[in-house]
Amino acid sequence: MNKPKETAETPYGRLDAAALNAAQESLDTSKLLQMVDELDAVLGGVREEDGLRDMLLRLHGMAHTVINGAALSVPANEETLPELAFDVASEVLEIISTLKRWQPHLEVLERLAPRN
């Protein structure tokens, strides 16, 4: 009686054979390229003018004035501190949602680690 191979040798290391078989049947590797595109979009949006980075800097300036009594460094009457905090939190949640969508695809590859 032959025992099935538990591991498979590949150019990228020894992998769990069952997990490799499952990944070969189910994993769409183009999802990894889609993650790259989504990451580019997220990073571009974060750094663009009035993106998350600029929003955080404005939020800091507003909070520094209100909490620490610092001089105004952000124009008043454009948006309220709570409105901006809500907008920043919304942007962060959107980024988190994107990253969480990636997790199942990455877990398939993590499961390739040999068990022994």
TrEMBL record:
<dbReference type="InterPro" id="IPR049837">
    <property type="entry name" value="TnpC_reg-like"/>
</dbReference>
<protein>
    <recommendedName>
        <fullName>Transposase</fullName>
    </recommendedName>
</protein>
